[in-house]
Write a structure and sequence with these properties.
The structure holds two protein chains of two kinds. By secondary structure, chain A is α+β, with helices and mostly antiparallel strands. Chain A has two domains: about 80 residues, Alpha-Beta Plaits, CATH 3.30.70; about 70 residues, 2-Layer Sandwich (Alpha-Beta Plaits), CATH 3.30.70. Chain A is about 25% helix and about 35% strand. Chain A contains six helices and nine strands. In chain A, the strands form two sheets. In chain A, strands 5, 6, 7, 8 and 9 form a five-stranded antiparallel beta sheet that branches. In chain A, strands 2-3-1-4 form a four-stranded antiparallel beta sheet. In chain A, a hairpin with a 5-residue loop joins strand 2 and strand 3. In chain A, helix 3 packs antiparallel against helix 4. The longest helix of chain A is centred in the N-terminal third of the chain and has 11 residues. The radius of gyration of chain A is 21 Å and the shape is elongated. In chain B, the strands form four sheets. In chain B, strands 3-2-4-5-7-6 form a six-stranded parallel beta sheet, with helices on both faces. In chain B, strands 11-10-9-12-13-14 form a six-stranded parallel beta sheet, sandwiched between helices. Chain B has a six-stranded parallel beta sheet with strand order 16-15-17-18-20-19, sandwiched between helices. The radius of gyration of chain B is 24 Å and the shape is globular. In chain B, strand 6, helix 7 and strand 7 form a beta-alpha-beta unit. By secondary structure, chain B is an alpha/beta fold. Chain B has 24 helices and 20 strands. The chains are: A alpha+beta, B alpha/beta. Chains A and B meet through helix 1, helix 2, strand 4 and helix 6 of A and helix 9, strand 14 and helix 14 of B.
Amino acid sequence: MTKPAAHSRSHTIVALLQDHPGVLHRAVSLLRRRGYNIASLAVGSSEVEGVSRMTLVVEQGDVEQVVKQLNRLVEVLQVDDVTHDPTIEREVILVKVAAGGNMHSVVSVALGYGATIADVGMGTMLLELSGSPAKVEGFLQRLSAFGILEATRTGRIAMLRGRATHSAAELVSDLVAAAPAPQSPEQWLSQADGINGTN
Amino acid sequence: MDPGADESRTGAQLICEALVREGVEIMFGIPGGAIMPFYHAMWEYRDQLRHVLCRHEQGAGHAAEGYARTTGRVGVCIATSGPGATNLVTPIADAWMDSTPMIAITGQVSSLALGTDAFQETDITGITVPITKHNYLVQSAEEIPYVIKEAFHLARSGRPGPVLIDITKDAQQTRTIPRWDRPLRLPRHKSVGVLDRGAVERATALLAGAARPLIMAGNGVIQSGGAAELRAFAERTGIPVITTLHGKGAFPESHELSLGMSGMHGWVHANRAIQECDVLFNIGGRFDDRVTGKVSSFAPRAQIIHVDIDPSEIGKVVPTAIGIRGDARATLACMLELAPAGNHAAWLARIREFQREHEPRQAYRRRPDSPTLMPHDVFAALDRAFHKHTGYRVVTDVGQHQMWAAQLIEWARPRSHITSGGSGTMGFSIPAALGVALAFPNETIWVIVGDGGFQMTNQEIATMVQEDVRNVKIAVINNGYLGMVRQWQQLFEGARYSGTKLSGPDFTLLSEAYGVRGIMVERPEDADAAIESAWAHDGPVVIDFRVEREANVFPIVPAGKSISDMMVTATANA
């Protein structure tokens, strides 16, 4: 079942994972199984020790099912498809360009994009830029005229704008011992619980 | 064996203690180099932990599955590293597909040798990532108490499933003072909390307002222990009940509201009911493709209510009007309190009319006019025996006989029809029956298996003999073919029997070689007597039923077709 609104070609998924060996393998394996290609993957520490935050970009029309299956993994604390949420998305790129006689042109492009000159070598210049995916794309296109010798990108990271928060701290403080199952219909229905309703 | 709390002991001893704490009584396995420390310690705990030595790790895994499925408890299997562990992959995948609670414990090379291609090193945690709920690579003795506690919790909670614990040899050998009090800490959303009251109320109301409602009961009803609630709900609301292959036993098929099985080899009237119903209430089933046929034309007039304990199943295959994450028994209990009494006599009469039109159930039992032993004769005889006796459970393998058994035997009780459904693992039945037989030593365990599946895992009969398991009776439906594939070749591929003709040893002589009784049956009139004789015999029996070689399972929905397109004979459609 697919929600029509979810039919973007590319999806950005943000997940909080317990920082254990193999957790990335488990998560990525669910995409590999379906033959989904991962456009970019960025993982690092979150604001809480022991919890990693992962941003995953998948070129796929429908990721609802895979998001649900990611949510089943024991070490996955939370998964969200933020494709249609208001987010800030950033990527860092290091790019080495041929810069001989045209050094001034390269520098002016770099300044225009707000890039940093990280290193200057014999006839080369290493530039560093952080920006939105579109800005990074534009920067690379602009530099291609000079001859790109090498480029490396961190992959996209994303965060919700405004007060909305995916708090790792809350999730960690909410780790629970196995709660005993309710025993009666009254207990099962004791309160509305958004987690369990799927509609 | 009860060392003081502050006395150090080896990791291997801690595994044993942890298993005893989890209530384990029996384990199925085969030792080898990397798991030897555990076997060494196991000897000290042999009064509490019974170890059953199987003949192949696949057998150990299926035995653990059989034990788990028939008891609802966690099954435990053990193997060494490398080939021992990889031989467990098939039963682990089987347990994964059929949501069976299982713990697989494997030995691993020493932590210092990990990743060096050491002797019998295989990355079994890597291999089993897609087929386990979770797995662990344990490299220190200190971790063992917590890991085993968490592993058992995961295996049995929520949607049950297999969990693998790979323990390095040095972790088994190291001595430590254990800590048993570390509490479980798991993300809240992984546990099944309370039900969504609004959704339960909407679902109950939708069913109450339906003109042609239908219940489809799956494995979840049996796993949750909800058969009594299902029956009460069906009787209160008057809604007819279809059971899936794994739902067999969740609702007595002798009940007037029972429609039997639907799907690829389901009854015509059951599939028709799905196609005509206006509300389909799937409780604890996952809309397997063998159930739905072509999804786009499945239940075209129905609004679907889907209750599943695993939220990732809801909406996976078919669009749902109301999806409820919940335990099947709990959900049914809640709906039972809310549901008004109902009666759907007209709708039921219409379904019964389809049944009369398109050959009643009895017609499939009727032996086609043939002097040779038909599979149908054997199933009719087994069904007669099952009506006559009490205290039996049945394990079926995979293929034609599995579908005949599902169709032609009247299933009555939960956890008494054990089969490999999602994975369709040939060779499942004999080792699984070993696990069932050990769980219920006072019941008679019938295996129904083809000659293909029999030849995959019959060595576990030797295990039965060694363990003095006397209550297993094996009915081989022997047609000299891999029959289901042959049937497809006959019906859909111009009868080109490529790779399906199968020879075998004389199964009665083979049985005698194992030290068990063998009976050969070639005539229809001998079937009942052979079954009764096997039932009365104090020990395992193999009955070699030499059946008509090219009998087919009907009805059949050709793969990829709508469940409206049923073939009821090789040439006729319903």
